[in-house]
Amino acid sequence: MNDLRQAIHLIEALYSPHPPPNINEIQQQLQTVQRSEHGLELASQLLSHEAGSVNVEYFGALTLAVQLHTKTAHDGLGDLLEVNMLHLAKLARLFVSNPSQNGSRMVVIKKLMSNAAQVFFRLNSPHGTVPPATTFTWKNPLETFCLLTSESSIHPEAFHDTLNHYLSQTIPYDHLIQLIGSSNELNSLTLLFSEVVIEDLVKYQSSKVGVSHLHGVVHEHLYITSTSIMNYNLQQIAISFQNNLSQSSPLPDNVFRCVNAWINYATMARSKSQGHMDLSETFEILIQLMCLHDSNQGLFPFSETVVSILGEIFGNDPTMLNYELRSSIEEILLGVNRSSSSRSESHQWMLQYMNHLVVNQMFDELKELALCVVDFLQISNLDVCNKLFTQASNNNTENLDQYIKVLLQMTNFTLVPVLEEFFSVRMADFWLDLCDAYNNLVRETFKPETPELAANLFGQVVQIYLPKIQLINKQKIVQAGEDDSLLHEFDDFRGAILDLIESMWAVLGNDKLTNVLIASIGHLTPSSGDDLFQIEAMCFCLNKLLVDMNLSESPGMCKTLSESNSFLTNVLLMIQTGCQQKGASNGKDAQILSCDLVKTSTSLLATVADYVKKDERALANCMDVLFNSLESCSNADDIDTKIELLLTKCTTSICETSRLELASYLPTFIKIQSSMVQRSSKVSDFTKQKFTRCLGYIIQNYTQNGPEAQAQYLAEVINTIKAGIMNAPDDRQQILCLLTCFSELGSALVPPEDSDNQSYLSQLPQFQEYWRADPPRLRELTLNLIESVLSRYGHDAEFIEVTCLIMGKKLTLSEEEPHFLAYSMQELMDFLLRRCASCEPSTGLPYIVYLLESVVNRYGATMTPQDFSFMLSTFFLGQHRDAVANDPDLTQIMITFVNSVLETRPGLAVHCDQWTSFILPEFLRFLASKERFTISAVTKFWTKVVNNKKFSRHDEVTVREQVCALGPQLTSQAMRALLHAQRSDLSYYSDFLRALIARYPLQSKQWLSQALPPLCDNNRAHQLLVEKLLVTRGSRAASNAVLEWWLNCNGLPQLT
Length: 1056
Known about the structure:
The structure is a single chain. This protein is an all-alpha fold and about 1050 residues long. Among the domains are: about 1-70, no CATH class; about 550-660; about 660-805. About 70% of the residues lie in helices and about 0% in strands. It has 52 helices and two strands. Strands 1-2 form a two-stranded antiparallel sheet. α8 (about 140-150) runs antiparallel to α11 and α49 (about 985-1000) packs across α50 (about 1000-1010). It is globular, with a radius of gyration of 39 Å. The relative contact order is 0.02.
C-alpha cells in the first residue's frame, strides 16, 4: 500500500453498502498494514484527514486498537495514548461545539474512548515494568478527558506537554461540576466515557488475573469522579422535573446507562478486590427519582427505569443496599415495615404507579415491577419466617400482620396471570420458600399459636391460587392471540403451584387440604364452563397429592372419596367434555383446553384406580366413559391423537389395577380389540398395542374357570392377530404393529409380584401342568407365525427386536410360574441361530444378543463351558467376526455379554475354549479403546477378572495364575490407556486399579514400577502414585491419586 489516498480508497470500498468482489483481499491488505510498524502512523493520518469520512476516521481508531493489542509490553503505550487522546479531544470539542453536525462521529469517539480505557488498564495492571525513561502514570482518565476537552484548542506540537501535564492533574469537585454543568454535550460525553471505561473493565478483568491493583486505582480515583458526576446529574434530573425544566438536564438515558454500568462493576469488584464501593448516595437519589410522578398527567418518567435497575440488584446482590435503604424501599413497595409500626406515605407512589400500569395495560412494565418486588421480598424470607412463627419475634406483631396482609393482596392481584399480571406468578416462589422454611423450623421454637397461624396463612394462599391456575385464564391467553410462549409460561406457572401445594400439604395435611379438595370437587354441580374449570383446577392439585399415595392401603382416604357424592361423576364429566370439544370446528381455544381437561381427569382417574375398583358401579361407569371417549377419536389432528394417547394410558392403568374386577368385561374388551387392530381402524398403533395389553391384564387374572378358559380367550386374541398379519402380508407397518400387540399381550400375562388372586394360587399346579403341555399349541402357533413373518422381514431390525421380545417373555419368571410362551432352551437357541444367520449384524445382532443373554441368565445352571464356547463362536466369532471387530457398538455388546456371564456363572467363561485364545488377549487390546462405552465395559471385565466373588475355588486358581502371567502387560496397557484417556473416563480405569491393588498388592507394585517410567519422564509423579495406591489398598481414595497423577503427567494444573 503506497499512499494515504490508496488506503482511504480501500477503506471506503470495505465499508461500502455494495462491496466489490475482492472484499476479502481488501480486508487482508488493510489488516496487514494495521498490524505493521506503520500502523500508528496510518491511524494518525486517517484521523487527521480533513476530508475524511466517518468510515475513514473509524478505521483510524480501529487501527489504534489493533496496534494496542499487538504490543505485549508497556513500550510504545505513551505514543499510542498521545495519538489517541489528541484525536479524542479534537473530535469531542467538535461535538461539543456543534452536536447536530458532528453526531455521526459518535461511533469514532466511542472507539477512541475504548482505546484509552485499554491503555489505562495496561498501565495500571502489574504485568512487566516500564523503563524509567518512559515512566508515566495515569490514574484518572475521566479528569484528563474533561481537561483536554474543555480547552478551546491545543496545537498538535504542544499536545505532548499538555497531555503529560493533564495525566497527573486532579480536578477539585467544584471545578468538575462547573465543567460538566457548563455544557450538556460535554456532560453527556463525560458520562459516556465513564460508562465505556467501566464496561470495558468488566470485560477486561474476566480474561485477566492479578488485576486487584487496577481495581484499587479505580476505587481511589475513577470511582470518586464518576459518582460525583452521576450523583450531580441524577439530582439535576430530579430538580428539572420538579421545576418543569426538563430542557436544562441532559438526557436521563445517558445517566442511567452510566449508573447501570457502575452497579454491574461494583457487584463484580466486591468479589475481586479489597475495597468497597459505596453507592448509597446514588441509590438514595435513584429511589427519589423512582417516586417522582405527576398524578394529574399520569406521568411516571423514571419509575420504569429505576425499577429495572433495582430489580437487577435484588436479583444479583441485594447487599449492595444498606439496611436503611432496604427499609426505605420496603415502606415504598409494601406500605409497611416489618420492624416498625409506622405507616409510610411513600407507598402512595406504589399504589398510583400500579394503577397507572393497569389502567394503561402496560403489562410488560407491570411484570418488571413484580419481578423487582418479589426479588426484594426473597431477601427477607427467612427473617419473615422466624418473626411469624418462632418465639424470636417480639410481642407487637401488628405491623407483621399488616405486612402479611399486603403480601396476600399482592398474590391475589387482579388481572390474568402471565398475560396481564406477574405478581401471583412470582409470589409462588416466595410462598414456596416461606413454606419450606417453616417446615424446616425446629418445633420447639414455635409460638403456641404457630400451627394454627401457619395453617390459616397457607390455607389462604391455596384459596388464592386455585382460581389463578384455572383454565379460563389459559383460554384468555389463547383468545388474546399471543404466541405459544405465554401458554408454556402459564403451564409452568401451574406446575409451580403443584410444587407449592405439595409443600403446603406438610403444613395443612389431609384434613385441611386433601379432604377439602375432594369434598369441594364432589360438592359442585357444573352448570357452566366456569364451574368445570373450577373442578379441573382442584383435580389438578389433588392428583399431585394422591399420586404417591397407595390408596389400597389408605382406607380413610377411600372413605373420604366415597363420601364425596359427585366426585367421580365430575371427573368423568371432564373427560366427556374434553372429548366433545376437541374438534377443530370448535376453535383453537376449545381444542387446547379440551386436551388439558382430559389430561387432568385421566391422570386423576388413573391415580384413584385402587379406589375405583372397589365399587363395581363406579368401575363400570369409568370403563363406559373411557370406551365411548376412545371411540370418538380418529387421529384427525394432533389434539385428537394426544387425547387418544391420554385415554389409552388411563385405560391401561385402570386395567392393570382392576384386572380381577374387570373379568366380566372380557367379551367386550375382545370385541373392541378385534375391531381396533383391523387394518381399516383409525386408532393409533400405540392405542392398539396398549389396549391389547389391557386385554391381557384381564385374561391373566381370569382364572376362576381354570386354565382352559384362559387359554380360550388367549387363542381368540392370538388368532385375531394372526388373521390380521395374514391378511396384510405386504403392509409392513400393520404387521409390525400387530406383532407389538402380541408382545404387549405376552407382557400382560406375566403375573404381578404382589398378586393376591387366591383362585389362581389355589389352582397353580393345574396351570403349571396345563401350560407345560400347551394343549391349544399356542407356543407352536406363535413360533410358526413369527417364522412366517421373518421369512419376509428377517433383515429388518424392528421385526427382530419385537420377535425376540415375544420369545423371551417367560425368561424373567421362575420355573414354577406358568406362561403360555414358555419356550425351552433348545427352542430359543434354534430361533436365535436362525436369526443370527440372516440378520444385518449392525442393527439386528444387538437384539439377538439381548435375548441370548437372557437365555444364559435363565438356563446358566444347566450349561457347560462348551455351551458358552459355542455361543461365543457362533454369534461373535463366526460369520459376524469382522463386523464385531470393526463396529465399536458390537464390540461393546460382546464384552457386555461376557461380563454378564462373569457376574452369574463365571466358570462358563473362564473354562471355555476361547478364554485364553481370544477373550484375554483381545480384551487386553480393547483397554486402549477411545469409545467411552467400550472403556466402561472392558474395564468392568478386567475388574471382574481380578476380583470376582462368584469364582469357585477352581476358577480362582486358574484365573490367578493367568493374571500373574499377564500382570505386567495388563498393567502397562491399562496405564497407557489411562494416561491418554479423557478426564471423564478416568473413573473406569481407577475402579480397575483399585481392584488390582486390593487383590494383588505385592505384584501390582512391581508391575506399576515397570509400567510407569516408559510412559513419560516424571519419576516423582510415578513414585507418588505407587505409594498412594498401596496406602489406599483399593479404597475410593485411590481415585484421587490417579487423578493427581494424570494431571501431573499431562501438564495440567492440580486441583485446589
